[in-house]
Amino acid sequence: MIEFRFVVGDLARTSFAYSPLQEAVYSLRCWRDPARYPHQRPWLRRLAPAFRRLDTELLRALVAPHLWLPDYLTPRPERPRPAFAGQLARIRDVPPEILESEFTAAYDTVTDRLPPVLREGLADPAAFRHRIADALEAYWHECLAPDWWPRVQSVLEADLTYRGKVLADAGVGGLFTSLDRRLSWDGDVLTLVQTDSLHTWPGADIPIEGRGLVLVPTLFCHGAHTMIDPGLPPLLSYPARGRATISEAPPPATSEALTRLLGVARARILRLLAEPASTTELAHRLDVTPGAVSQHLSILYDAGLLLRTRSGRSVRYARSELGEQLCG
Length: 328
Hints:
By secondary structure, the protein is of the alpha/beta class. It folds into 3 domains: 105 residues, no CATH class; 129 residues, no CATH class; 78 residues, Orthogonal Bundle (Arc Repressor Mutant, subunit A), CATH 1.10.10. The chain has 13 helices and 10 strands. The chain has a 4-stranded mixed β-sheet, covered by helices on one side. Strands 2-6-7 form a 3-stranded parallel β-sheet. Helix 11 packs across helix 12. The radius of gyration is 21 Å and the shape is globular.
């Protein structure tokens, strides 16, 4: 059992963020144990040739058999939507002397039982941290950034929008329960009861102490979890809502009547907007240019079928009440 203890003001410092570095690092779990991530299999098949050209022995070894990872590879996001390059720079700069303890903790073992690629690398930790960062950077640019990350980002953005609605409708307790049914809020304590049959996280009492709790959605966990070291800045990762949509399934089928009314493209866009999305996200899902999507969105918006809101530098669209009625 893990307990996050709040004092006055801590709840106000609780926030959401998502992390491209965390998703890149967590995605290595798929290469370690693909059977646990069926929604990622189409992507694994597509990316396998590029992945095989990378430092695959090291990348696979970053993930322990029970799918734990060193904490330092997934630092807490410093802002809601950090850039991959900035996060990667942070792990390049970690003190080299922490690497051995980080890997032995992740593997839940002693150093001499680590895989050979880790044991050999840890003999020169200063050089090894750069090899790890280089491998992750190549993995990001060769496999993830071009097509995979935009799809993932759209899922994470939709999740954050949904959690905001839950908070407004159900309050703090309802919000935490929506992240994972094993989470419960009682007074000033958020409790996570662990039932993971794969490997149990160490029990911990984690005081927030003014540091804030950051809630981070991910496609690569089956339940909420935190860092291995309870002394690190508080972070709680949880399963992103809608993560199954990454599986390359085609856009939702549209009814014949809706298609006759709006045309195939606009009917598909309206169906896809069951969850809010940006122009770029829709373009990736439909495999068309953002310009083409933008034209259709303008028509649907002018017809009163969509609402739009600004989120940072991005404009996000959602179905209006009339749009919902048309979609049935």
